[in-house]
Specification:
The complex is a heterodimer.
Chain A: H1 2-39, H2 44-75, H3 81-84, E1 86-96, E2 102-112, H4 130-138, E3 141-150, H5 155-158, E4 168-175, H6 182-197, E5 209-210, E6 230-235, H7 242-250, H8 266-269, E7 274-285, E8 293-305, E9 316-318, H9 319-323, E10 336-342, E11 352-355, E12 360-366, E13 369-377, E14 393-396, E15 408-415, E16 421-430, E17 437-445, E18 449-460, E19 463-464, E20 469-473, E21 482-490, E22 494-504, E23 520-522, E24 526-532, E25 559-565, E26 569-571, H10 581-604, E27 607-609, H11 616-628
Parallel strand pairs in A: 1-10
Antiparallel strand pairs in A: 1-2, 2-8, 3-4, 3-7, 4-6, 5-6, 7-8, 9-14, 10-13, 11-14, 12-13, 15-16, 16-22, 17-21, 17-24, 18-19, 18-22, 20-21, 23-26, 24-25
Helix pairs in contact in A: 1-2
Chain B: H1 2-21, H2 24-30, H3 41-52, H4 67-76, H5 80-115, H6 130-134, H7 136-145, H8 148-155, H9 160-176, H10 179-193, H11 200-210, H12 220-248, H13 253-263, H14 274-279, H15 286-299, H16 301-307, H17 312-326, H18 332-339, H19 355-379, H20 384-418, E1 432-434
The chains are: A alpha+beta, B mainly alpha.
Amino acid sequence: MAAHRCRNLACLLLLFLSVFLVTMSQETTLGHEQHATAVGDPQTGAETKHTAEKPRVEEKRWEETKVKATTQASDTAVLTKTQVNEDFQEELVIRPLHSGDIYASFQFRTVWETDFMKGNKVSHYRLFPKSLGQVISKFSVRELHISFTQGYWRTMQWGQPFIPSPPGAELWVWFQDSVTDVDATWKELTNVLSGIFCASLNFIDSTNTLQPSASFKPLGIGNETDHRFLRYATLPREIVCTENLTPWKKLLPCGSKAGLAVLLKSEKLFHSSFHSQSVHIRPVCQDRQCKSSSWELRQALNVVFDLHTSGQSKREWSLFKMFSRTLTEACPLASSSKIYIDVTDNPQEEQFELSPATPLLSQAVVLGDRRTFSVYDLTQQVTFGTVRSLNLMIRWKSSEGDMLRPLLHAERYVAGYGLQTGEIHTLMYNNHPFRSFPVLLLDSVPWYLRLYIHTLKVISKGKDNNPSYIHYQPSKDRERPHLLEMLLQLPPHSVTEVTVQFERALLKWTEYTPDPNHGFYVGSSVISSLVPSTVAMETNITMEQPLFSSFFPCKEESSYFARVYTEPLLVNLPTPDFSMPYNVICLTCTVVAVGYGSLYNLLTRSFQVEEPNPGLAKRIANVIRRMRGVPPL
Amino acid sequence: MAAPLTLLMIVAVTVRAVLFRSSLAELISERVEVVSPITAWKRVIEGLALLDLGVSPYSGDVFHETPLIIYLFHFLVDYAEITFMLADVVTAAALYAAAKDYNKQVFRKQKFALEADRYPPDCLELIRTPLEMHYVPLKVAMFYLLNPFTILSCVAKSTCGLNNMVISLFILCTVKGNVLLSAIFLCLATYQSVYPLTLCAPAMLYLMQRQYIPVNLRRVSFWWFVVQYLFMYLGSLFVLVCLSFFLLGSWDYMPSVYGFILSVPDLTPNIGLFWYFFAEMFEHFRLFFLCVFQINVFFYTIPLSIKLKEHPVFLIFMQLAVISIFKSYPTVGDVALYMAFLPLWSHLHRFLRNIFLVSCVLLACSALFPVLWHLWIYAGSANSNFYYAITLLFNVAQILLVSDYFYAFLRREHHLTYGLYLKKKDGSEATLVLK
């Protein structure tokens, strides 16, 4: 009882504090705007003052929102459920990359406090897409992650993406432990998702489905980690195009009519170096105590534009140039709608110039690094200015930028020549100068490349590096792929090379793809790791954070979770002659018949002295003589 | 006789040891003609590695050897080269002893027949002389030990060498008249690769001949012997199967070894007829042709046994040849085993019709296998049809070889009954034809 009263008191206190802070922050923002207009041409002294001031402003704003959330949570009992427990946020992060490319990452997040399970029939949908809700309840899905990617994310040049994904399609699902026949449910689910996303997910069958034992832990709440309920599959050959984007956009509450989604025009999105769209459904905590859970649907779209080389010699970009649209409003259903622009490398504006300038700056710890962002809040009318449209623009001043090597990256290739055997090499780089860290390597190899696990070699710095954990599941012909999972320790500042030999199988002529000499794809290796972080990570999952920094839950402050996908491999197999089936059947059967015939001959006949054949005339004469009744000649 | 045999063995072991030490060993062990998916040493090692990882070797589709082999090499993996050389030497010794014993019996029988005056008078040049027969066992051992096929098979550490050893020990025990050991070794051979099952018939025929039991379906003694032999055979098979079960604690090996042999899921090219045929087969005829091809191996047992019931050792030779031609994953090691018997039938040479052609074809094919493989797999300038054509030719040559020997054998038997120089009714020289 006392505790309850204390909480009420705290709520009141927080409410009061929030009002106070809101006024404070408004004041500081205003003050800053005045300052900016007054200074006009920023000088170094004033600028440092700026940056010192801005983070504090943003921190205050976060505190404000957090307080709001807490007060809302305490008021749920009073308010009607459907209005309060559903929330939609949208966000666009733009990060200029060192290579001169532009990385734009859209994230849309719908959170709904409802229960799809236990026979609870949910029929009233508001923001959450009904098609996915029905999928969750029908197939007892606990977590669903699906991504479609065109192009390969170049970790070495671009750093880590906010949400990593392998080329092609990737799907991994945790089922509830109430599911009895997981394989059948999985098969049905892939077919349904194939329909929803207009993708070839129906090609997922037992030959490319895995049950990783350690690499894919649930990202949402719940500590059930029995990997019998996990299914993972990739289709490295899947081509992603407009027909996948349209159904994906339809899942958004505003569709592509309003908000950030108006930028998602396929003619521009697919004219890019990298395009990845994904859907992630998971249960998340509502509050710090995690008393109640809600379902989170996160739709992410990552795209890398190669503006530098595409025609214009000038290095500059704008929203209009990238997406051929400008923004005019936020999605009216969204509780928050923001654009973040990464300006960490540009504190003095010496690298590029951002227009229109924004007064808001924000700092976030993302992927082990503290980054500074300029923030545009689309829910504020003032963002759109007098022209009622926002067309962000960056003009580069200098072209050089120092490459920050990512701490972890990996690559993979096939070695050897000929069509009989080969060797898969996976290289993992730890670029940390003094710390080693563990990585989990997941390799999935189709059955027609027969791996020889006794040839597995792990070498770092010229020495054998024995994996501390190996989970190997050999393949079954035409049934399941090879699965190799290893826990490795990467020494600091080193390259670790994993090699394993394989043998190429000759398939039945009907098992080849229509273009067999193009080769067969082998899905990316997945490297999951806890990479040492340079700054303290935020471990409080319920705290209000920008969406891009809150995807992977963080358990400890000193490291962050990163997943790196290697290139998919393209491997040639020996092929039979596809025009020959009749000939081969005829010829082989002939040889068998020669064997049978000669043995049959010798078995059934006996040796006899050859008597000369009487001539034809004589035989005819004998016939006539027999008719006449006279003895033959 | 022991000295030449010892010398031969020393030479054979030296050749093998030198090849093991050379860089060729690696190359040979990758050759598809020498190793099949069942017998490949690489796969045995893989099975052991899987066992070390705590995974059942039969959970995947790489290892297809029997549990006894994996158990054997669990201890002998470091002495694999010696084991395989020893296996070849034992095989040669067993074949040598068996040939010697068989020759003695042939000679004795011939003597009885001569004394009983059963041969026609003009057949004296068909009668075998002790001088001619003296070197036959040594030649048999030499044909096995110095056959390039055997050497390649041994250097590749193909477990085919072990199967050959078991089969040759079975032949030795049968020829020596040891019923129990014969049944046990036959069961071991069957356990290793199913097909030697057909050797049951010649073994029983030979043992009955030795014990003077007439091959007559109406006689109780005949059936009693058959039941005895089958009991021993099936009993030891049962023991082996159960032993394998207890070694690994599961029945997984059954589909993985025998299902693999019979259903031919692995279409890796080899010298046999199966791989390309089933790679190019229409899906709904696959089962039908699979049955036809597998029955084909077992099909000849009964007619051959009826025709050759007086000559079980020649029947063993015929059966081994049929198995090595028509089995699902043949290697050159299988060919080498039945080729070792050829000196035993050296007295048939005057009746062979196309031995020159056949040996030329066999030699040419053996040379062309690696060439066309290289053109297909490495150079990319040929396709699978080239290699397939050579396997076809190789098999036709083998079939011709076997049927030629069969013809010659039957013809000699015919001459021994009816005389060598047959006359027509009109007194002119006659020609023999099969009718």
